[in-house]
Amino acid sequence: MSVTDEDPPGSSAVSPKALENLAGPSRAEDSQVCAICGDKATGKHYGAISCDGCKGFFRRTVRKRHNYSCRFKRMCIVDKDHRNTCRRCRYDVCMRMGMKTEAVQEWGGIGGLVSQ
Question: Carries keyword Cell division (predicted)?
Fold first, then answer.
């Protein structure tokens, strides 16, 4: 199974702390908890309140055009302790929490960002 827009949203389990952020953006910004894994958030990245770990994971996934698959019916727990267990489910949660692939800038290697 690949990471595409055609795939239906999965039912990956999200941590209770991350679920608290579903109340709205002001709640997420006040609590500064990552909407994806529940870790300490560092700000709004690519459209979602997230930690540096989830920000970097999402950026690498988009830039390298990774295609991930889940071995467990896309029902994996995505929290601080288990976020590295299933990349597909973590990506699904990133998308559900509002991260936008178009917000990730292309990287030009040693020279920096590619001008568009």
Answer: no
